[in-house]
Design brief:
Elements: E1 4-6, H1 10-20, E2 28-30, E3 33-37, E4 41-45, H2 47-54, H3 62-65, H4 83-87, E5 110-111, E6 115-117, E7 125-127, H5 129-133, H6 156-160, E8 188-191, E9 199-202, H7 203-206, H8 233-237
Parallel strand pairs: 1-2
Antiparallel strand pairs: 3-4, 4-5, 6-7, 8-9
Amino acid sequence: MKFVKIIVIPSIMLSAAFILASRPAIALEVLDYVYTIREGGTIIFSHDRHLKALFPKGSVNGDDCLLCHTTIYKPQGKRPFTMAEMYNGRSCGACHGKRAFSLSKCGGCHTVKDVTYRVQPTGDVVFPHSVHISKIQCDVCHSRLFKPGRNRPVGMAAMEKGKSCGACHNGKKAFDLEDCSRCHLAGDVLMKAKKPWDVTFRHSAHLPAYKCEECHPRIFKLGYEKFRPRLTMVDMDKGKSCGACHDDQAAFSTRFSCQRCHNNM
């Protein structure tokens, strides 16, 4: 049995299909075709996967290739098809939604990555597509809440009114926006002090006991480096800054446990 390997270039694929049409069924291997879409991730079209689904017996000839070539895909057709055209039966839509899974199951084809939102000063937010598409369909968010591609930043006030992430993160459909640390990657904050030594504030140590809004923005303005307060231990004794909690009642005192906060003590 002769083995034929065909690189998937439409014109070559078509020529090979006509040559093989007059021959007996043979084993046919073709490579994956990668589509890079600016606002929709990467799509990898697997010929092997589709051929096995269409011809489970494993033998393919030139006539079989014509099932898609040239009825659906023309040999020299380079113009990309839109999703609207696919929903009307063009390109992938000739099968998907009829004899294969629906086009609305975007994750079956589109390879999407995590999206990192640079948020200052509350820490970056990483949106994991994999976590969300395992629970909801892509069209729940796109393009009603988020347009494919870059979106205009939305503030927390707008989210609390149901926009952007707030459409779901309202404590009913998904966890509430008040659970800030589940999205915002707040790290350690270095508070510089001349005497005795610097203090490293660790969000990870405080978040299990307190909620973000208990400190922000009433006690600490967001963006410590920008709004660096000049507070002394006397100020803390009066309930300012760390002293709002570290009063030997809500938390250990700032007076007698210095080494627990100041570095190198």
